[in-house]
Amino acid sequence: MPLREAVPADAALTVAGLSEAQLLARIFPRLTVQEPGSGPEAATSLLLGPGDDAAIVAAPDGRTVLSIDTQVADQDFRLEWNNGYRTSGFDVGWKAAAQNLSDINAMGARSTSLVVSLTMPPETLVSWVEDFADGLIAGIRELGATGCTVAGGDLGRGRELSVSVAIVGTLDGKEPVLRSGARPGDTVALAGTVGRAAAGLALLESDVRVGDLTAGQRALLDSQCRPAPPLAAGPAALGAGASAMMDISDGLVRDGNRMAAASHAILNLDPAALKALAVPLLPASELLGTDPMSWVLGGGEDHGLLAAFPPDVQLPPGFTAIGSVEAPAPMQSTGVKIAGRPADAVGWDHFAD
After folding, report:
1. Looking at the whole model, is its pTM more than 0.90?
2. Would residue 220 be called left, alpha or beta, if left means φ above 0 and alpha means ψ between -120 and 50 degrees?
3. Distances, alpha carbon 241 to alpha carbons 79, 173, 210, 230, in Å
4. For residues 194 and 96, what is the distance between their CA atoms, to the nearest angstrom?
5. 117 to each of 93, 155, 160, 338, how far by Cα in Å?
6. In 10 A of CB 262, how many CB atoms?
7. Residue 199 burial (CB < 10 Å; 0-12/13-18/19+)?
8. Please, are residues 254 and 346 in contact by the beta-carbon 8 Å criterion?
9. How far apart are CA 73 and CA 102, in angstroms?
10. Among 77, 140, 306, 314, which one is least packed by beta carbons within 10 Å?
């Protein structure tokens, strides 16, 4: 049996104080998704997990759905926010799971495995890394992706903290739902939430101390730090016959414009439906003096699903109608409108913001 290096127990230990093998010895035991006694629905496609040069994952469908996302400190999150909230490793791990699971979900697919690359400054606490691994697994479990495993990854040293996750999924023999399938007459529908993560971000960057937030305001903050994409909704939409679908990561209008362009269509949104989406944001908007509709239209990172359904299709559970698809007039551009008027919310741009 090969010798294992002793693992120091100091709670203030940084990654600079461990070898790679010692750090991995702390992480590997935390990367098991299935609970003991899990049923057959939690069976995974992982054939060979962490420990070799590469993982081996089964692809019984013959196709692989693949996505990747990166979070970088001070670009995608702050370790300490203006209102005093400290981003935990658990937060970053959870969010890494959520945003990647959502991308697979948006295709109507089911996530099967992921690999993680974590780059850390030498002063990063080992406890933060352990917390990250716990958050990653908790996100997978609690969001309902129990058939998804962590197949492996990479650790590295760098000047800034960053995490990249590559995730694969399966269509289980079905055809994917693309952004480009929306047709005139379709119903535009939403699953999950919009605007809550943006309201949470505004609270994080405000001068209102985190300890002074009400329960409703704190729930919005949590939507930013630990988003909850509706993972059951993607396969349900595929099964119901959705014509188009996508993850809302950069804002309802910005992502809606992408679907409209891909489908060569106009998404005409219902003002009453949008107003209803703004109601849960009032605890933050009243505190900060912000129009909640700006968060509904321009806020990203809730990772809800925007979908289009043929008019004769009953919307599956979890979806709410918010508008309709129209054909652009000759010489008219595609895009998102609200009650027939162009929507001007900007949304998130990874390079401009």
Report:
1. no
2. alpha
3. 42, 15, 43, 17
4. 18
5. 12, 6, 13, 41
6. 16
7. buried
8. yes
9. 21
10. 314
What are the pLDDT digits (tens) for 80-106? 999 999 999 999 999 999 999 999 999
State how far Cα 296 lies from the chain centre.
Answer: 17
Strands (E), the chain: 46-48, 56-57, 65-72, 110-120, 149-157, 162-170, 187-191, 244-248, 266-269, 304-309, 319-326, 335-338, 341-342
Q: At what angle do helices 89-105 and 126-142 cross, to 10 degrees?
A: 30
Tokens of 257: 């414009």
The total of other beta-carbon atoms located within 10 Å of residue 157's CB is: 12
What is the largest distance, in Å, between two alpha-carbon atoms of the chain?
73
pLDDT class of 257 with cuts at 50, 70, 90: very high
User: Minimal CA–CA distance to 114: which of 168, 67, 65?
Assistant: 168
- Half-sphere exposure (Cβ direction) of 297: Cα atoms closer than 13 Å: 19
